[in-house]
Specification:
121 residues; mainly beta; four-stranded antiparallel beta sheet; globular
């Protein structure tokens, strides 16, 4: 059974930074691509970023490219998302997901409880 636990969210001012973490209990984690997705109030789930199993290929939604950085530690089974230059429109519940997703993917329902990111002055 896949278990994902997200943490690191919070309230931050525009322009600020946060680092999100996702601790994953995934069979063969080191062979599994991982992704971050988010859902803002009243909006659909949105893909944010994906990293391949080895951490060598990273993909980003146009809205976050250049501001967010995804990474992973396979030994610890953790996926990170560094959020820089945050904007109010980044406000959302952030979830991690096991698998390879892009902006064209149909996203599965979140498995974890998510971590809330709120960007406000």
């Amino acid at each position: 059974e896949v278990q994902l636990v997200e943490s690191g969210g919070g309230l931050v001012q525009p322009g600020g930074s946060l680092r999100l973490s996702c601790t994953a209990s995934v069979f063969n984690f080191e062979s599994t691509s991982m992704a971050w997705v988010r859902q803002a109030p009243g909006k659909e789930l949105e893909w944010v970023s994906t990293v391949n199993s080895g951490g060598t290929r990273k993909f980003y939604a146009p809205s976050v490219k250049g501001r967010f950085t995804i990474s992973r530690d396979n030994a610890k089974k953790i996926v990170y998302l560094q959020l820089n230059s945050l904007k109010p429109e980044d406000t959302a519940m952030y979830y991690c997901a096991a698998g390879f997703f892009t902006e064209y993917s149909q996203l599965p329902p979140p498995r974890g409880q998510g971590t809330q990111v709120t960007v406000s002055a």
